[in-house]
Design brief:
Strand content of chain B: 25-35%
Shape of chain B: elongated
Number of strands of chain A: 18
Number of domains of chain A: 2
Largest sheet of chain A: 11 strands, mixed
Largest sheet of chain B: 12 strands, mixed
Number of domains of chain B: 4
Shape of chain A: globular
Number of strands of chain B: 27
Oligomer: heterodimer
Distance between the termini of chain B: 106 Å
Order of helices and strands of chain A: EEEEEEEEEEEEEEHEEHHEEHHHH
Structural class of chain A: alpha+beta
CATH architecture of the largest domain in chain A: Sandwich
CATH class of the largest domain in chain A: Mainly Beta
Number of helices of chain A: 7
Helix content of chain A: 25-40%
Helix content of chain B: 25-40%
Number of helices of chain B: 21
């Protein structure tokens, strides 16, 4: 729970992206269709732009702040509302002052410009209400309760991120995959997003992967897909837990990006009945501490299996097999 | 001298009223019969001293004869006429048309506004102004009003009606009890200005007779008219628990040489027997008509200002239009509404005028927002306002219903269309996309041929928070009353909230092909409530039994046009992996929010202040659930930072205040319930000045674990 040494704004500050456009050098700017913005998910997908090599993007941002903020008699003065865009991976922070356009002082609107080169993948957009409080200028008295995601690459405005899946022949593929020519698939978590490399040189792999339906191929497909998914989840969990930022007193921080999401989704199954922060601390303590890491492995496997829906896939396979057998006998 | 009416017709009517022949008048005022005849035909006017004698003969004062704005009070007095029972003994125990609707102020608002729109005077392009006044009368004011409507004459009829064990009888009984037990009466007045008014003869074809004398007569003057059944006016009487409506109309074209203060009252009661006389049902308040056999039937009369004042029927200006005064207004639907409201809420009982006020405003905003929108060079069609009074004193100020407030995004859409500022594709929020959808019109007369294709205009814009449910399409015709309000089916969940408006018929603009035909076709497809388009008898008779399928076609086209504008096309899976791709996603918006363990104590409340010397003093309140007292929790204080590790702060003092104690820096709880601790930080461990940063306090499980 947070407390501040000065009065803050109660009530919600809300934020919307009203328009987005991109511009490439020496080309006219492109106004993005409203479908590139999702008001429901609060995501802008700049990848929907048809201009391929755009270098700047401009967002029209509007914010609604509580009317208390600008009423006379408030404990602050010189209210300003700023849009703040942060990209944690490039450590970029872009701000832009919004202007109040209504008489009520509740609606603020402005534009925020960003450079493509400043952003790697996804950036967070929020709005802060800044004021002079008790003679100290520039204090944050309020912040938007929900932020927006500005996705530079994606062409679908969703919060959900998909891991990458690449079908490639290992034998003639990149050198690092050539060591695994006899493996059907390999999970690599070192990139911007975890990637599953599927070995198309493996005999029958592509056929099984594309099989559907209730026949034997479909059953094998369901089994294999859940097995692969379990592999992926175990790998991404270890990868995420292995690279945590630690505070001075040893408290681990939730990482940013997909790693954080993986931990949030899986920790509930790994260390049940604890808050997420507590669970993270517990897992980290066992990993770096003297004892307990080995004992935790079954729980990680369990969490990955649940996430990959292995039990359901297996059950369906078993039943499907029985059905096929009955049909053969009939 | 300003005279209300030509002398001739006025005198003729007065003679009729007092039942005096021209010869008798000639004898009384000592002139020839030919002179009287000359006055009446307008060939001559009487000399001043003769006028004096005429006034005496008519038993009235000089001013009345000079101004001639009212009839003389001589002759037969204003009173109630009850239609006698049918000679065949038939009985009507209520008005069937009134049962077609709920007695509900929102239905009333819909029907009356629709009538006013239909009767709008279009010559100046000005909107018709409709004003709803809720007026609660109590005590002395109520007594005076009862006197004005000749309550004592009516009361036996109410007594006879309430005794009947049927629906109408029970409603009347409730209305009478409400009036006598609570000493109050709610009047709901509906005024329109810049409308045609009740023109025409008292008995013959015309607006007056259509409203006052007839049932199911829809006297509509324009092709875009909303109403078509003549049922709507029944809601006026249905809204009155006493079945009583008084009318004052200012006419747009003179009748009997006059326009202002044409007054009549109509009472709708079931069949009854009073003083041995059977009464068929309806009764009228008016002046007995000497032209009718026995001079019993009453007709509208031209009232003076005092009379309309006492009847609460004074109109604010001489602009044409009609005032309906619904006596004993009630609102059935509001009983079902707001059931969540606290019981025994004395301030607002079910028929409270405040609640009726709110519901009126809401109904007007929902159904007529579009008619209240102007744009381009066109003024709105309608202005509506609602006010509430009690004994003449204002309870809720008169306020115009503002479509921008009640329906912001739809209003914006329509305004953009009228202003011509629509776009093809939506890029910015606040924009309005316009497109057209086809409506294939059938030929009249049951042939299976098409007459032509009407292009309805579809407007789509993003929804505002203030709107009600998003992702809907409302449809309307030329009178811009909301006919249909439906959800758009089959949209993906991720679609940005929007509102759509479908303008058909003459609403689609001047250039739209076959607008008038579409107007007729869709009007035929509306039921009496005018709240949807579908199969109706009229549609089957005028067109063909399958004509309604063309409306389904319009709906289909509309929905797919909306989808094309707002829904993202489904992307084919661009990456491989078959079904694997679906399982490998993270960060979907909060599929399930996991609650923290139920047994774990949580920090409920934190009260912090800065002490002199720069230390934080925090008092934390912890909720310890049942079975949670075994937890050992360590309060941890840190500075709040934007990102990265937070600098920690050491405690200088940490004590349990209530229900807990501190052992080795951890809290031990004595029992479940609420526990309180107090901590004071050590300012020497502060990384920044205390006043410059926020403080984060967390509870951490501390079983055998220390900061390492």
């Amino acid at each position: 729970m947070k407390v501040f040494p000065y009065p803050r704004l109660r009530g919600t500050v809300s934020l919307r992206v009203d328009a987005a456009r991109v511009k490439a050098p020496e080309r006219s700017r492109e106004q993005l269709d409203s479908r590139a913005r999702s008001v429901v998910e609060r995501v802008v997908a700049l990848g929907m732009a048809e201009t391929e090599d755009w270098d700047t993007a401009t967002l029209t941002v509007s914010a609604t702040i509580p009317s208390k903020a600008t009423e006379p008699g408030a404990p602050w003065s010189d209210i300003a509302v700023v849009a703040v865009l942060t990209d944690r991976s490039t450590n970029t922070r872009v701000t832009s002052r919004l202007a109040s356009d209504a008489e009520s002082g509740r609606e603020w609107r402005g534009e925020l410009q960003m450079l493509r080169s400043d952003l790697s993948d996804r950036a967070d957009l929020t709005v802060q209400v800044v004021a002079t409080v008790e003679g100290v200028p520039g204090r944050i008295v309020g912040e938007a309760s929900d932020d927006w995601i500005i996705d530079v690459g994606s062409d679908v405005p969703t919060r959900e991120q998909s891991f990458e899946i690449k079908e490639v022949g290992f034998a003639k593929g990149p050198r690092r995959l050539q060591n695994f020519t006899d493996a059907p698939w390999i999970v690599n978590t070192s990139g911007a997003l975890p990637t599953v490399h599927i070995n198309t040189d493996f005999e029958g792999m592509t056929d099984v992967l594309e099989a559907e339906g209730r026949g034997p191929e479909g059953l094998v497909n369901a089994m294999m897909v859940s097995q692969m998914a379990a592999d992926v989840w175990i790998a991404v969990f270890h990868s995420a837990i292995g690279d945590l930022e630690i505070e001075a007193d040893g408290t681990p921080l939730f990482p940013y990006g997909w790693q954080g999401e993986v931990l949030r989704e899986m920790l509930a199954d790994v260390v049940p009945d604890r808050t997420l922060e507590d669970a993270l601390r517990e897992v980290h303590r066992r990993r770096v501490g003297a004892t307990g890491w080995a004992e935790l492995q079954p729980r990680i496997q369990y969490a990955a299996m649940r996430r990959a829906e292995v039990p359901r896939a297996l059950l369906e396979t078993v039943r499907g097999l029985e059905k096929l057998k009955r049909e053969d006998e009939a | 001298m300003e005279a209300g009416e030509d002398f001739g017709p006025w005198l003729a009517r007065q003679l009729k009223l007092v039942d005096m022949t021209q010869t008798e008048l000639a004898q009384t005022v000592k002139v020839t019969r030919a002179a009287v005849s000359a006055w009446i035909t307008g060939r001559a006017t009487p000399r001043p001293e003769t006028i004096d004698r005429i006034a005496q003969a008519l038993n009235t004062d000089l001013a009345t004869v000079h101004t001639r704005t009212t009839d003389t009070q001589a002759g037969l007095p204003v009173g109630w006429y009850h239609r006698p029972g049918h000679v065949d003994g038939g009985r009507e125990l209520g008005n069937a048309a009134a049962f077609a609707f709920d007695a509900d102020v929102s239905v009333l608002a819909r029907e009356t506004c629709q009538n006013s729109l239909d009767e709008r005077l279009t010559t100046h392009g000005q909107p018709v102004r409709v004003r709803y006044t809720l007026h609660e009368l109590t005590g002395e004011t109520l007594a005076r009003f009862r006197e004005a409507i000749h309550w004592d004459d009516l009361y036996p009829h109410y007594e006879a009606s309430r005794a009947q064990d049927n629906k109408v009888g029970r409603v009347i009984d409730a209305g009478l009890r409400d009036m006598y037990e609570h000493d109050r009466l709610v009047l709901l007045r509906v005024d329109d200005y810049n409308a045609a008014g009740l023109t025409g003869d008292d008995y013959g074809d015309g607006r007056f007779a259509a409203v006052v004398r007839r049932q199911l007569d829809s006297h509509k003057s324009v092709s875009t008219a909303g109403g078509s059944y003549g049922l709507g006016k029944a809601t006026l009487w249905a809204t009155s628990r006493l079945g009583l409506v008084l009318i004052n109309s200012t006419l747009s074209e003179p009748h009997e040489g006059r326009t202002e203060r044409r007054v009549i009252g109509r009472l709708d009661l079931p069949w009854r027997q009073v003083n041995g006389e059977p009464c068929a049902g309806p009764a009228w308040l008016g002046r007995p008509d000497p032209d009718r056999p026995g001079a019993k039937v009453v007709r509208s009369w031209w009232a003076d200002e005092e009379a309309v004042e006492s009847l609460h029927l004074t109109r604010e200006s001489g602009e044409p239009g009609t005032s309906f005064l619904i006596v004993g207004a009630h609102d059935v639907a509001s009983l079902a509404d707001d059931s969540s409201a606290a019981e025994g809420d004395e301030a607002e009982d079910d028929d409270s005028i405040q609640r009726m006020h709110r519901r009126l405003v809401h109904a007007l905003g929902t159904n007529f927002w579009a008619a209240m929108v102007g744009g381009g060079d066109r003024l709105p069609l309608l202005e509506a306002s609602v006010r509430t009074l009690r004994n003449g004193a204002v309870v809720i100020e008169e306020k115009r219903v503002d479509p921008m407030v009640t329906q912001p995004s739809r209003t914006r859409a329509l305004k953009a269309f009228l202003d011509g500022t629509t776009v093809e594709h939506l890029t910015e929020s606040g924009q309005v996309a316009a497109t057209t959808v086809p409506l294939n019109l059938p030929a009249r007369g049951g042939k299976r041929v098409s007459m032509g294709e009407h292009r309805a205009v579809l407007l789509v814009t993003n929804a505002e928070d203030a709107d009600d449910k998003p992702n809907r399409v409302v449809a309307m015709r030329g009178n811009r009353m909301t006919v249909r309000d439906t959800a758009v089916p089959g949209l993906p969940l991720s679609v940005n909230p929007f509102q759509a408006v479908l303008l058909t018929g003459e609403a689609a603009g001047m250039q739209a092909p076959f607008a008038a035909e579409a107007e007729q076709f869709l009007r035929a497809a509306e039921p009496p409530e005018h709240n949807k388009w579908g199969q109706t008898e009229e549609l089957t008779l005028t067109y063909s039994p399958s004509a309604f399928r063309r409306i389904s076609g319009l709906t289909r086209e509309t929905n797919s046009a909306i989808k094309a504008l707002v829904a993202r096309p489904k992307k084919g899976s661009k990456q491989g992996g078959g079904r694997l791709a679906r399982t490998l996603t993270v960060g979907a918006t909060k599929k399930r929010r996991r609650l923290s363990a139920a047994t774990m104590p949580v920090l409920e409340e934190l009260d912090a202040q800065i002490l002199e010397g720069g230390a934080w003093q925090v008092i934390g309140e912890i909720k310890v659930p049942a079975g949670g007292r075994d937890w050992r929790l360590v309060p941890v204080a840190k500075f709040d930072v934007r990102s990265g590790p937070r600098p920690g702060i050491a405690w200088a003092e940490l004590v349990g205040v209530d229900n807990c104690q501190v052992v080795d820096g951890a809290l031990r709880f004595s029992a479940s319930g609420t526990a309180t601790f107090r901590g004071v930080t050590d300012p020497t461990t502060h990384a920044v000045r205390t006043s410059l940063s926020g403080l984060v306090v967390e509870l951490r499980t501390g079983e055998g674990e220390s900061a390492s």
